[in-house]
Amino acid sequence: MRKLLLIGYGNVGKTFRNFLHKWKEELDAEIVGVVTRRGLMMGDSPEFRKDADVSVTDAIDKVKPDVLIDMASANYKDGQPSLSAYFHAFEVGADVVTTNKAPLAIRYFEIMENAKKHGRKIGFQGTVMSGTPSINLYKVLPLAKVKKVRGILNGTTNFILTEMYEGRDFSEALSEAKRLGYAEEDPTVDLNGFDAGAKLTILANLMLNKKVKIGDFQIKGIEDLKLDDIEEAKRRGSKIKLIAYADEKEISVRPMEIEANDPLFSIDGVENSLEVTNEVQRVSIRGPGAGPETAAYAAISDLFIINGTK
User: Fold this and answer.
1) What is the rounded distance in angstroms from the CA atom of residue 136 to the CA atom of residue 43?
2) Does 9 count as an annotated binding residue?
3) Molecular function terms in GO for this entry (predicted)?
4) Measuring CA to CA, which of 36, 163, 182, 291 is 20 to 30 A from 190?
5) Which of 148, 199, 239, 241 does the annotation list as catalytic?
6) Which CATH class is domain 142-287?
7) Where are the domains of the chain?
8) DSSP 149
């Protein structure tokens, strides 16, 4: 049975634990430790209790996991402590599964090269569209070169734009998003496009080999959009959406007016969508892009694949 060490134990971590117990036999894995800012808990418990006051890398040495599961909140300043934890896990022979976008948005290729150097695997489906298989979609589209990726990658902003299309102003739409749990109390990284930019960074590096990091390209959010802008587009039969786009020459996140015949026109509320166009075909997927259940399921699916059971 494979031993798992979790980083982070919020709603996603606890939901992951519930799924793991549900599918324990199929996954052949068990939690042997959880490490948070408060310290290390040895073993598996529904509620965190501190058994030792150690760093994340020390926790890896103490627990000796087969797989490190990172569900920590994103630190876009330097990706720590997760970034150091990945490198140390690879070095001591552990694989990594992560739902944390920040390390990959900052140092994607270093992480991939380090995993390869040590013969380890990293699963990161949960970093883009949570459990809707964006990253893992690419794994089943072999050989054909990807020409472009395009999508709606942030549920908070898409919900707000949908509400504005129905007549609410920005502040009312944001308040409703907070009330329903679709927006954080501080939604800055959603509203300014940074979250979508981090996801696009990962997709562009994976699918287009762009060699970019967050901050290397234009990111414009929705904070400056007025209800008049939305209504003018509506009168033209269009909608304004926050579009993430990358091809061989261009990469950006910005609000764009799209027409009714565009596949992204009907993506409303908190739903996300991604189009991947390769030299053979265009493939589109849509589904929830956030929430503890879908994020935890993304980590479960990666663990399933890494275990070689699929």
Assistant:
1) 30
2) yes
3) homoserine dehydrogenase activity; NADP binding
4) 36
5) 199
6) alpha beta
7) 2-131+292-308, 142-287
8) E
